[in-house]
Amino acid sequence: MSGHSKWSKVKHQKAVTDVVKSAAFTKASRAITIAVKEGGGVTDPNQNFHLRLAIEKARGVNMPKENIARAIAHGTGGGASLEHISYEGYGPGGVALVIEATTDNRQRTVSQIKNILERTGGTLAAPGAVDYLFKRRGVLTVPKSAMTIDTLLEAAIDAGADDVVEATDLFEVYTLPSAFVAVRLALEEKQVVIDNAVLIMHPETIVQTDDSARARIDTLIEELEALDDVQSVYTNMT
């Protein structure tokens, strides 16, 4: 009986892992497809930087090469119906939310997002309601083990970066969106080790939250990110 129970638990854990992996692959695939589409059909990652980022993210979740190739092909053909869209809203405690999605059905996506927001104490807002509280910025992360902050700061300034912030085990190099590609390429030429490079919505105004609101917002974000259509969720929560 105990053996059966253990096997059942193993099967359940595998099923959960498979679901998580499938969701990660779906998100990565859509990001690749939309990068090709919005990049004018350019399928060479050396000529389409957003595609390069999408492929790196796909590799980060161990997406097979054939899946990546299929997603690229969809960007020039069958995946053309996909579009990138942002939704705005509020979470518990008045926290602002920007939800970025890639979808082939706006009605389905907004319905799913609205349902989660309302169920977790949030509300969907009109376009422009909270967008102004954020700014698009590029972020490149560099492991602390790679170099000192002084060395990185000098290289980042020379490359045209805006700022370098020290975190617990890494450095964050911030750039304007227009300088993102140039800064990354310049740092790579200087042999700077870059763990991750993404474009984000960075909050300009921060909202203080208590533990109760934070817990509810964490649940809200977790449920939103579980949707296949949702790529990223940004908040201005501390």
TrEMBL record:
Give the subcellular location: Cytoplasm
Q: Name one GO molecular function term.
A: DNA binding
Extract the InterPro entries matched here: Integrase-like_N (IPR017856), TACO1_YebC-like_2nd/3rd_dom (IPR048300), TACO1_YebC_N (IPR049083), Transcrip_reg_TACO1-like (IPR002876), Transcrip_reg_TACO1-like_dom3 (IPR026564), YebC-like (IPR029072)
Glycoprotein listed as a keyword: no
Superkingdom field: Bacteria
Q: Which GO terms of type biological process are on file?
A: regulation of DNA-templated transcription
Sorted alphabetically, the Gene Ontology cellular component annotations on this record are: cytosol
Q: Which intervals hold domain TACO1/YebC-like N-terminal?
A: 5-77
Any idea which UniProt keywords this protein has? Cytoplasm, DNA-binding, Transcription, Transcription regulation
According to the entry, every stretch annotated as the TACO1/YebC-like second and third domain falls at 83-237
Which family does the record claim for this protein?
Belongs to the TACO1 family.
HAMAP family assigned: Transcrip_reg_TACO1
NCBIfam families, per the entry:
PRK00110.1, PRK12378.1, YebC/PmpR family DNA-binding transcriptional regulator
Q: What is this protein called?
A: Probable transcriptional regulatory protein A2363_03630
> What organism is listed for this UniProt entry?
Candidatus Gottesmanbacteria bacterium RIFOXYB1_FULL_47_11
